[in-house]
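Example protein
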Amino acid sequence: MTDKDKKAGRPVKSVEGEGQVTIGMRVPNSLKRLLEDAAEKNHRTLSQEAERRLQRSFNPRMLVEDATSLWQEIGASEQETIRTMLRPAYGKSEVDVGIWLMEILTLVRRARGSRATVGIGRDDLEILRQAMREIEEGVAINE
C-alpha cells in the first residue's frame, strides 16, 4: 500500500460484544448548545447526554414518558401552540386523541405515581381502540 492509498486518521478497531465505541458525527452549533445545556441541567457529560437521548429515541415507551413529563412542565399557551402546529400535519382528531391520552396519563401519574395504570370502561375502551385504528391507518408505526 502506498502513502497515497492510506486513509487519514486512526485505524478502525473492531468491537465485539456490547462494548462502548466512539462515533464521530457533525451537528449544527445550535444542537450542540442544546445538548450542552441539557447535559449541565441533568448533571451529565455531553457524551452521556447524547447517548441517553439516542437510546431513548429507539424506545417508544421512554419517548412517551419524556413527552408526558414535558407536557406537565409547559403551560397552557405552549400546549395550544403544540396542538396548532401538529394539527395540519397529522389531522385534528389524531392530534386531539393523542394529546387527550397524554393528558390522562399525566393526571394518573400525578395522582398515583409514575408507574400507574389507568382503569377504563368497556365502551370507552372500544372508542379508544377505534381511535387508535384510525391513527394507525394514517401513521407509519415503527416497532
Summary: The longest helix spans residues 92-112. The radius of gyration is 21 Å. Residues 26-58 form one domain. The mean pLDDT is 76.
